[in-house]
Amino acid sequence: MIPTFLRPWLLLLVGLVACAAPRPMPLAFQLDQVSDRHRPAFDALLGALDRRDHREAQAVLDGLLARLESEAASSDETLALEVGWQLDAARRFQNILGGRQRVESLTLDLAVEDRDGALRLILSIKSQHPAPLELRPGSAVFEREGLFMGPDGKLNVMGSTSVLRGEQRWELPPLGRLEVDLGPYSPPSLGGALAERDGFALRLGSGSVLEDGVTYPAERWPVPRGMRVNLASFLPSGALGPEPLLALLDNPEASMPARIERTVRIRPADYAATLAALGPKIDGATPEIFERYAPLLAWLCMHRPQPQGLDAWREHLRSVPEPRQLEPR
User: How far apart are CA 83 and CA 38, in angstroms?
Assistant: First the structure.
């Protein structure tokens, strides 16, 4: 049974969808007005939608629609009139569920790629849906966060947000893939920093998905994220694994700039493995030694919010599972 305090949000969603749909009247759905024989099914449907258990929601909805359509076709006019608005409500829930299922069939990725000698920001969209889809997000907001690492280990963060201009409409073939060029990518000025880790994300607002002339509401689009590491021009550009940094850390005479240089050149796919290897060193570190590790940990850790202080880092690193090798983005 869905908690009572959560139901108004689902009812609001149904109302908003109804207002946007090409219907003469908005849907006014109230669970307490549903006939007693159908109320358990509607209640189960609301619960499954709230949990985003779409398989259960579809099963409940299929049975509910079958019963309502049978009663709506009854020669008993009183019965047909009674279930008419309930059938309309069930069909609109079906539309909501159809939108969710189509959105969840999508995989979105974001990356910086070299196209004809120029860096471009490329959005890749893959569909696991067996029919053509047209995606119409309500808005497209590009978020960017730059983490700058100085030679002394000092970190600075800069962020920006921008809205992509124009209406976004993307057509996907069945089980197909689409690339969208979002524009040129300009690495930030590093100033005195040794490196900058540029993280970005594309957030899409609620909109719609079209299939074969039918419009489905679309919300909770996947959020594609990407990352690029920009190094100072005088640093070697070759990527490193964790080993050179770990070997350097065993040398008490190694300088902070040398530690930083090894850290920022580590492949992003190896960040988790490097953190796992640093765990035992942090467990046995004094507060003074921890200060040498702190900027390295902050660069390698993608978790938000990051741990603060030696004890918090110890606890966090103990909870990190042994990582598998990851593919670079």
Answer: 9
